[in-house]
Amino acid sequence: MVQRKIIHIDMDAFYASVEQRDFPEFRGKPLAVGGSPDGRGVVATASYEARKFGVRSAMSSRQALQLCPDLLFTYPRFDVYKEVSAHVRSIFKRYTDFIEPLSLDEAYLDVTEDKLQIGSAIDIAKQIKEAIKTELNLTASAGVSVNKFVAKIASDMNKPDGLTFVGPSKIVDFLEKLPIEKFFGVGKVTAKKMNSLGIFRGKDLKTFSESSLMRHFGKSGKFYFQIVRGIDDRTVQPNRVSKSIGAEDTFSTDLNDPEEMKLELYKLCEKVEKRLDAKQKFGRTLTLKIKFSDFQSITRSKTVPNPVQHAKALYEIIEELFNAVDLMDKKVRLLGVTSSNFYYTEEKTEGIQLKLF
């Protein structure tokens, strides 16, 4: 069987880098895209100068300012980001048609058989990075391997402007040494649970049987068992059709403050917006999911006549659904937001809730 050549490209601090490119006053300064200097809202992306202070995406502006009092804020310009993303996509297409976008700023590429017959995935990744730098004055990081899972992890290893290759003979050693929180698909809550079981690196994870991992982590246990061994047969899917797009978060500490829950819901709406935008989808139906500390789950949905995509419009509907829920003084373990019932872009776009600021 032919071994795949997979590249994962991830733009570096995408929104913030575009703003620093276009506005000299932001260059070399700690910058947050999204949020505001009065402490309201949440950060969409932080520049690397801001990240040195611990500022990160989905963080409240108030917390970001506490970490970095000199932090600058600017409004997102999604029309510009989409334009840049389209240019980046056109660069990818010079080499392959097997492109699976994950968002505006990252994508998988299968270059097993590349259009220019270059042959080397490493050389293709270098050329793509150079084209992005030359044509757009931006940097991207690349991970190169034989499957999607390892390529995605590799792209994050040497940011910014990095290129990391993990060949077939190095995959096992690479994953065994990898801290468990670096595994794609292992969030903070799961990492904490793994730590409690004595799992801190990939080599620790490998000591658990598949049945044991499934007992501790449900269906995800099978995934963890396979990926720590470098087993990932997922193909790059350029024409994957999504019936719904959503985001959810399980909290390390159960929430009991409705205002804090609303902040988390807004963060989730921003994540959903980013994913909708990348897929060029507009949903008519919004669904709120709440899981309580006693593991009881409820969902509430609303369908609107005009499809929505922007986070503020999503949040208005989700907040309405949330306000109608009787929390019964229970603590909340998980919140989720999902968009479905899509209005596709080939239809006329009259009446769609577009970007508003």
From TrEMBL:
<keyword id="KW-0963">Cytoplasm</keyword>
<keyword id="KW-0239">DNA-directed DNA polymerase</keyword>
<dbReference type="GO" id="GO:0006261">
    <property type="term" value="P:DNA-templated DNA replication"/>
</dbReference>
<keyword id="KW-0515">Mutator protein</keyword>
<dbReference type="InterPro" id="IPR043502">
    <property type="entry name" value="DNA/RNA_pol_sf"/>
</dbReference>
<protein>
    <recommendedName>
        <fullName>DNA polymerase IV</fullName>
        <ecNumber>2.7.7.7</ecNumber>
    </recommendedName>
</protein>
<dbReference type="GO" id="GO:0009432">
    <property type="term" value="P:SOS response"/>
</dbReference>
<dbReference type="InterPro" id="IPR022880">
    <property type="entry name" value="DNApol_IV"/>
</dbReference>
<dbReference type="Pfam" id="PF11799">
    <property type="entry name" value="IMS_C"/>
</dbReference>
<dbReference type="GO" id="GO:0005829">
    <property type="term" value="C:cytosol"/>
</dbReference>
<feature type="active site">
    <location>
        <position position="106"/>
    </location>
</feature>
<dbReference type="GO" id="GO:0003887">
    <property type="term" value="F:DNA-directed DNA polymerase activity"/>
</dbReference>
<keyword id="KW-0808">Transferase</keyword>
<dbReference type="Pfam" id="PF11798">
    <property type="entry name" value="IMS_HHH"/>
</dbReference>
<keyword id="KW-0548">Nucleotidyltransferase</keyword>
<keyword id="KW-0238">DNA-binding</keyword>
<keyword id="KW-0234">DNA repair</keyword>
<dbReference type="InterPro" id="IPR043128">
    <property type="entry name" value="Rev_trsase/Diguanyl_cyclase"/>
</dbReference>
<dbReference type="Pfam" id="PF00817">
    <property type="entry name" value="IMS"/>
</dbReference>
<dbReference type="GO" id="GO:0006281">
    <property type="term" value="P:DNA repair"/>
</dbReference>
<comment type="similarity">
    <text>Belongs to the DNA polymerase type-Y family.</text>
</comment>
<feature type="domain" description="UmuC">
    <location>
        <begin position="6"/>
        <end position="187"/>
    </location>
</feature>
<dbReference type="InterPro" id="IPR001126">
    <property type="entry name" value="UmuC"/>
</dbReference>
<comment type="subunit">
    <text>Monomer.</text>
</comment>
<keyword id="KW-0227">DNA damage</keyword>
<dbReference type="GO" id="GO:0000287">
    <property type="term" value="F:magnesium ion binding"/>
</dbReference>
<comment type="function">
    <text>Poorly processive, error-prone DNA polymerase involved in untargeted mutagenesis. Copies undamaged DNA at stalled replication forks, which arise in vivo from mismatched or misaligned primer ends. These misaligned primers can be extended by PolIV. Exhibits no 3'-5' exonuclease (proofreading) activity. May be involved in translesional synthesis, in conjunction with the beta clamp from PolIII.</text>
</comment>
<dbReference type="InterPro" id="IPR036775">
    <property type="entry name" value="DNA_pol_Y-fam_lit_finger_sf"/>
</dbReference>
<keyword id="KW-0460">Magnesium</keyword>
<keyword id="KW-0479">Metal-binding</keyword>
<dbReference type="GO" id="GO:0003684">
    <property type="term" value="F:damaged DNA binding"/>
</dbReference>
<dbReference type="InterPro" id="IPR017961">
    <property type="entry name" value="DNA_pol_Y-fam_little_finger"/>
</dbReference>
<dbReference type="InterPro" id="IPR050116">
    <property type="entry name" value="DNA_polymerase-Y"/>
</dbReference>
<feature type="binding site">
    <location>
        <position position="105"/>
    </location>
    <ligand>
        <name>Mg(2+)</name>
    </ligand>
</feature>
<feature type="binding site">
    <location>
        <position position="10"/>
    </location>
    <ligand>
        <name>Mg(2+)</name>
    </ligand>
</feature>
<keyword id="KW-0235">DNA replication</keyword>
<feature type="site" description="Substrate discrimination">
    <location>
        <position position="15"/>
    </location>
</feature>
<dbReference type="InterPro" id="IPR024728">
    <property type="entry name" value="PolY_HhH_motif"/>
</dbReference>
<dbReference type="GO" id="GO:0042276">
    <property type="term" value="P:error-prone translesion synthesis"/>
</dbReference>
